[in-house]
Amino acid sequence: MKIDQFPADIRPYLLPEPRGEMIYRCIDCKKEFDIDRLLYTCPDCGSVLLLYSKNMEYTSHISGKKWRKIFDYRRMLNHRALKGIFRYYEFIAPVIPLDQIIYLGEGHTPLVEANARLKEKIGLNFYFKNDGLNPSASFKDRGMACALSYINHLAKKENIGDLLAICASTGDTSASAALYASYLENFLKSAVLLPEGKVTPQQLSQPLGSGARVLEMPGGFDDCMKVVESLAENYHVALLNSKNSWRILGQESFSFEIAQDFDYEVGDKVILVPIGNAGNITALMSGFLKFFRAGLINQLPKIVGVQSEHADPVYKYYLEENPEKRGFVPVTVRSSVAQAAMIGNPVSMPRVIELVKEYNRAAENNKIFVVQVSEQEIMDAMIIANRNGHIACTQGGESFAGLQKALDAGYIRPDEVGVLDSTAHILKFAVFQDMYFNDSFDPEFNIKPKSELKNTPIQLRPENLTKYPAAGNPLSGEDLQNFLREMAAEIAKILGLKKKWH
Fold this sequence. Notes:
The protein has helices spanning 11-14, 57-60, 64-74, 89-92, 116-122, 140-158, 172-183, 201-209, 221-234, 245-251, 253-261, 279-293, 313-319, 349-363, 375-386, 394-408, 430-438, 477-495; strands spanning 22-26, 32-34, 49-53, 111-113, 125-130, 163-168, 188-195, 213-217, 238-239, 269-274, 302-308, 368-373, 417-422. Helix 6 packs parallel to helix 7 (172-183) and helix 12 (279-293) runs parallel beside helix 14. It starts with 10 loop residues before the first helix and ends in a 7-residue tail after the last helix. The strands form three sheets. It has a six-stranded mixed β-sheet, sandwiched between helices. It is globular. It is an alpha/beta fold. It has three domains: 111-136 and 252-445, 3-Layer(aba) Sandwich (Rossmann fold); 139-245, Rossmann fold (3-Layer(aba) Sandwich); 460-502, no CATH class. Helices cover 38% and strands 14% of the residues.
């Protein structure tokens, strides 16, 4: 639709202009800093930062009902910058001019309802939100679209002509960072640091294809992160991990979309999300709090974080019921099929601790939970989901396995509705599906494929056939007829087909 086709009372709000002031605020010491430079940690105390709009009061001058109307109409607007996560411009980064926003097709991924068989199996109505349908095939594009849009804005404002963006990654972050950086190649180059041998071939191919400098080093993600942090502290580079607060802002769009897709009724919803570096659960809490305070939603949904027993520092932190006795202790991770969540010392943990308190206070109830699942449960859940029409990755399997655990623990009621975050596309993690089907997991994973879930190709070699077609040497005449007859009969036998009655 064109602007003049919208209702007159909505037109002034459809194309927002930059307004207000944004600042970094330290999680610990609460000091505030201007956004005229890229900051990742507090210059005074070293803690992580969150971004805030200092004059968000203008959003409260518009009723929640009016905001819902604005976003619902903006959904029909054909404007490049507002087609992605910046549909919610005023609640993400309202200081970036629309013509400097980078849009590569990210955001607004579908909610796919579970079929009747899965609902009956679990005893609950639930949906997968397929974030694997983002441009680089993972949810990371949400945060990267915001971070790179701000870098684009800052580069134009400060006349920056040569910049290197860098990140540590288990795969998805590197793919996303390299993709978005390549779009801004006129002034931005990218490099990614990966743990050697810990990234699937499919994920490795993505930053290589986008032209990034790919560096592999011994160790795990946490080791790569320490090196990248050191680089960001000592060299002129743009850090693109979730320590970058602009990333968190972009990922808040996940919560905004869920709210809009359920017509802003989320009080009976339970969002299940894997926890790795903890940026995603941070963004979920922050996003829903913004919509709640602005009146777009009347209740806050429950949020359940899910961790594998091979990388579970957040789960262990919240095992202690007494907040006064809790103390965060990083863990040494073991190999996990949920590679993107294989992080023992999450960068965003201080943000999580702060926002969990804030979220539960606002809800006037405990609405944040963390559950632990096994590697076996993750793989079984992923296979079962995909056997029922989904494209869940291993992290999506983690969310699905977490749904069952949260139900068993009483965190979810049968009358509530689950929303499972499938963070990436199954094709990124096809290697684990192959390992499951071929029973080739290393013992450290402790995964034994279930026979009813295994699936491997069947080689067709009918006993009565001696001649087969080959490239450049097709069959003909009686040989072709014999081939077709015997091959069809063999397939019918395997599949249990019955002949037609004439």
